[in-house]
Amino acid sequence: MAVAACAILAAPLRAEAPPIGSEIDLSGWSRTFSEEFDSLDISARGPGTRWIAHVPWGGDFGDARFTDPAPGFPFTTRDGVLRIEARKVGNVWRSGLIASVDPQGRGFAQRYGYFEIRARMPEGEGVWPAFWLVGIDRSTATAEIDVLEYYGAKPDLFKSVAHVWNRDGSRPHYSDWSRSPAPGATTAFNTYGVDVEEDWITVYFNRRAVWRTPTKPEHRQPLYVMANLALGGGFPIDRTPDPSVFEIDYIRVYAR
């Protein structure tokens, strides 16, 4: 699928929140974005590529520097799987991030719908892979949904968070979060998804609902996609395996 020229405005769903444990049925949905990682169309900051290798607003986070793409590092694709590698280069940890819009907001974003990654987590204390969404409009606040945050120090669990960060630094910021079981996170590929609707944000593991939270007004806008292998996140990295690899089979987005 080509890079989207503008955001997709999918129809919202006003309904009862899906029961925890229920399975999402995508048979009535349309796939609006599909990245199967047979290859990787990426540049440092765009324009014109499907992905860029830094957060669109600039700056890094965590204890590894997100690195411009180069042959063989930090991104490789093989047999339809993207490998994001973290390793020490000299005394500095380096790793990778992919984002679906560039600093000018060009690329793929969608308001409402189901966003999903199929991935296998790296092992070891200090690894911090994530799959997350951010709102296009950051003029007054940053709307963020962390579908998946995985901490190697806490295997078999993943964290999901809905954030609203006020850009002027005023408080209160908004955060609601949950930790959910993720059996086999490092030994098998599993799916991690979120359905963002007008009333509810619902997180899924292997397409079964594990957590939900009310949708804040700031999240009712086009959201773009990011995935990365960061390090740290509040945990030490002195015993982090070098190298560490986050494997992604696909990223897909659906609309009703």
From TrEMBL:
Residues 27-256 form the GH16 domain. One of its GO terms (molecular function) is hydrolase activity, hydrolyzing O-glycosyl compounds. The keyword Hydrolase applies. One of its GO terms (biological process) is carbohydrate metabolic process. SUPFAM superfamilies: Concanavalin A-like lectins/glucanases. Keywords: Hydrolase. It comes from the Bacteria. Belongs to the glycosyl hydrolase 16 family. This is Glycoside hydrolase family 16 protein. It comes from Methylobacterium planeticum.
